[in-house]
Amino acid sequence: MSADAMVFIHGGQHDARCWEPTLTALREQTSTPLLAINLPGRNGEAGDLANLTIADCVASVLKQIAETRLQGKLMLIGHSMAGISMPALAATLGDAAVHSMVFISCCVPKEGSSVVESLDPPMAPIAKLAAKHLRTMPPLPSFFANWVFGNGMNREQKQFLAASLCREATSITSERVSRAGMPNCPRHWLLLNEDRAIKPARQRSFIDNLGGVSSILSLDCCHDVMIAAPELLATTLLGLNTSK
Question: What is the pTM of this model?
Answer without folding.
Answer: 0.97
